[in-house]
Amino acid sequence: MIRCISCGEEYDDDEVIYTCDKCGSVLEIEPLDVDVGRDVFECRKDCLWRYKELIPVDSSMRVTLDEGGTPFVRCDKIGGELGVDLYVKVEGSNPTGSFKDRGMTVGVTKAVELGVDTVGCASTGNTSASLSAYAARAGLRCVVFLPSGKVALGKLAQAMFHGAEVISIDGNFDEALDAMTSLACERYLYLLNSINPYRLEGQKTIGYEIVQSLGWRSPDRVILPVGNAGNISAIWKGISEFYCLGFMDSKPMMTGIQAEGACPITNAFKRGSRDVVPVENPETIATAIRIGAPVSYAKAMNAIYDSDGCCESVSDEEILSAQKYLARNEGIGVEPASAASIAGLIKLRNEGLIDKGEEIVCVVTGHLLKDPNTAIDSCSKPKEVSSNIDDLKKLLVK
Ligand code: F0G
To answer: Each residue of 279-298: pLDDT tens digit?
Structure first.
C-alpha cells in the first residue's frame, strides 16, 4: 500500500503515482506486515536482498548487481582525534560507486513488475549513473536529464557508457527534475528519482545494515549529506522499521549535512521550522548535492525532528579538507558531497553540539573516482623526473 505522508490518502501498489492526488504531498510505502526474526537475516549473504521480506517488490523478479553489504569501517584515528566512536559506512563500494544502487535495484524491479518500457530521471550525476546500469541490465530504455556543465566526469562517463540517452539541460538540477517529473506525469516514462517511494525502499537498507553491523544496536547518531533529502528519509524509515519489529531498543539522532551554498533544510531547521524555502541559485563544489528545492524535504524534517537530530551546513573549504582528511588518515576515498558528513561531524563536535564519546556512523555516499577532476585539482602535480636511479634516490632521502 502507498500512503500520503500528509493526508494519509492510500493508493494501490500498482498505481503509477509520485505525489498525492488529493493534497500534493509526498508518498511512502506502508511497512509490510511480516512475521520475521533477526535470525532469518543473519544466515544470509551480506547484500541488500538478504532483507527481501521487508522490501515491497517481487524479489523473484529482482534486477540486481549484488548491491548493499557495503563496508562498515571503524575509524579510530579520526574518532580518537575528535573524541567520538566513529564508524564509516562506505557506500562508494556499491556496484556503480554510490548508494543510489540500493534505490535502483528496487525501483527498476518495480518498473519491470509494472511492465514499463522506458525509465528516466533527472540527476546531479549518481542517480543517472546507477539508473543507466540497472536499466541496461533490465533491457529498458533509459533517459536522463543532467544540469549542463555541473556533473562530475565519472558519473557522466557511466551514464553515457551504459547506453542511456543523456540530455544536458540548460538549467540546474531542480529545473531538470521539474521537467522530468512533468514528462513522467504525462506517462512518457517511469520516473526513478527519489520522489518515487520505491527508491527509498531500497535505500532504507543502509539503516538496516548499520543496526545489524553493530550487533542489533542503534548508534547514538547517523550523519549523512543531504541534497534532495531522499536518503536521510530512507535511512530513518529503515531504522524505524527495525525498531518497530523489536530488533533494537533505541534510535539514532539523524543528522543531515548540506553545503553552505545549497542548504534550504539547514535554514529551515535553524528557524525551528518544517517549511523549507527553496534556495534560488544553489552553488557548491559538491555538485552531487547542488540542490535548492529538495523534493523529500517534508520526510527529512520528520526524520530530523522526530529523532531529536539536527541539520548543519559546511563550506566548500571544509568539505575539501574533510575529503582529504578521511583519505589520508583512514584510506577511504570519497567524492566531495560524501565528505560533507565528515566535515559536519568536525564542525558539530567543535561547536559542542556532538558530545564527547558519542557513537557515530557517518555515511559516505559516493566513491572518490566519481569526481576525478576535483580530486586532482586539490593535490599538487606529480614531480616530473627521469628514471635515473640516483635522481630517484635523492627524492627518497628523508
Ligand atoms: N551524496 C551523493 C554522492 C549524492 O549523489 C547525493 C544525491 C546525495 C549525497 C544526497 O542524497 O538527494 O537523497 O539527499 N544525488 C542525487 C543524484 C541528487 O542525482 O545523483 P539525497
So the answer is: 999 999 999 999 999 999 99
- Ligand 1 pocket test target in 142, 365, 367, 374 with most atoms within 8 Å of CB: 365
Instruction: Please report how many Cα atoms fall inside a 13 Å half-sphere around the Cα of residue 90, on the Cβ side.
Output: 17
pLDDT tens-digit map of 170-221: 999 999 999 999 999 999 999 999 999 999 999 999 999 999 999 999 999 9
All three cell numbers of 291, joined, read 540542490
Residue 394, C-alpha cell as written in the block: 635523492
Assessment of whether the complete model's pTM goes beyond 0.90: yes
Helix axes 153-161, 126-138, angle to 10 degrees: 20
Q: Is 228 in the pocket of ligand 1 (CB under 6 A)?
A: yes
Verify whether ligand 1 is closer than 6 Å to residue 127 (CB atom): yes
Query: Does residue 229's CB lie within 6 angstroms of at least one atom of ligand 1?
Result: yes
From the CA of 382, how far away is ligand 1's center (Å)?
A: 31
- Residue of 189, 166, 230, 191 lying closest to 107 (CA atoms): 191
By alpha-carbon position, which residue is closest to atom 9 of ligand 1? 225
Identical fold for domains 72-97+199-377 and 98-196, yes or no, is yes
Q: 3.40.50.300, 3.30.450.20, 1.10.10.410, 3.40.50.1100: which CATH number matches 72-97+199-377? A: 3.40.50.1100
Q: Compute the distance between CA of residue 343 and CA of residue 361 in angstroms, rounded to an integer.
A: 13
Fold adopted by 98-196 = Rossmann fold (3.40.50)
